[in-house]
Structure formats: structure tokens, C-alpha cells
Description:
single chain; 6-stranded mixed beta sheet; 8 helices
Amino acid sequence: xxxxxxxxxxxxxxxxxxxxxxxxxxxxxxxxxxxxxxxxxxxxxxxxxxxxxxxxxxxxxxxxxxxxxxxxxxxxxxxxxxxxxxxxxxxxxxxxxxxxxxxxxxxxxxxxxxxxxxxxxxxxxxxxxxxxxxxxxxxxxxxxxxxxxxxxxxxxxxxxxxxxxxxxxxxxxxxxxxxxxxxxxxxxxxxxxxxxxxxxxxxxxxxxxxxxxxxxxxxxxxxxxxxxxxxxxx
Length: 234
């Protein structure tokens, strides 16, 4: 199975559900798992069972799917979207000038231990000023990365160059961590206190707040953010 197959499944769901397709991402992933298993059985991976192979595929391609879903609408706001791995895996000397500057605008200074990029899946930046507006982590469940996401937010806040960058999390929340505000599970508490918010792709009822919302609010909030911060004028 390839990423293109995931896109095909998404587009099929979109024809059926329209703007509410985001609520059916877990359903899409279940269907994708069956297709992935069918292909895997034809050519099993040595020393790896199907569940391991599927987890690797799902983790790598879920973030690509999020990028696919948001890229056109982000572009319509006059912004650019970038996969975080593009900066992480490429030496700065080999990057185009624009991306090299974007990378510099995201680096975290660890003093004598050098400067390092935060672990993020998606970067949204302004194409003229090259100022980074937001970074996104996207995982199936919060336990995979939410504490780490909170850590990166705190590190970005420590530098004048990066303190304005918003740190978001996008997830289907398959373990239900975000469903209830009070009493809050640990992951929900981290989102509420240590990040700029999470957007949930689920049919499940979620007790929303300023920091936890359904995914359909993401572009609307991003638009408000760039208007408030006057990024358009830069």
C-alpha cells in the first residue's frame, strides 16, 4: 500500500461526507489497515509482523495526510506549508535560500550543545517574511507525543525569535484523552496548559474549550491568528 492509496480513500470519503470528512479519519485508517494487510501478506516484511509494519506506515503517512488536507486552504490564506522532515534531514548548505532561512527561524539554541530543530510534522510560514506562524504535531493518539509537544512549546517561548510561534496538535484522539475537560486526563491537561491547542478529527463528542476544538475550526483559527498578528503586512 502507498500513500496515494490513502489519498484515494480520503477523496472517496470526501465525496460522501463533504466538510465533515475529518470526523471519519479513524474509519478511513481501519479500511487502510485492511488494504495494507492484504498487500503485506503478498510480501511479508522479514522479522516484522503486520502490526509493526502497519504502525510504521500509519505513523509516517498520517502526518502526510494532514498536510494534504490543509495545504490548499492554508495556501489560500497566503501562507506556505512545509513538512518538518524536509528541514531535519537536509543539511542547511543543501537547502534553497528560502528554506534555509525558515530553518534558522525555527532553531532552538542549546548553548554549547548546538542549535536543534523541534520535532514537528508540519510548519506553516509566511512566504515573504519567512516568519514561522505555527508548527503542528499530528498523531493518532496523544500518548505518542503530547508531552514532547508541550516541551517544544516551552523551548520556543524562551527565545525572542521563536516565542511567537504557535504549537498545535492534530489528532483523531482514538484513546479519548481529549473528550472531557474536567476531570481532565493528563494529555488534556498538557494541551490546555502547555500548548496553543489541539484539533480533534473525530465523530466522538468532545467537550470543547479555547484550546481543544474539533478540526473544522483549524483554518478559521489560523485566519484569525494571522489577522491578529498582522503577518499579512510583512
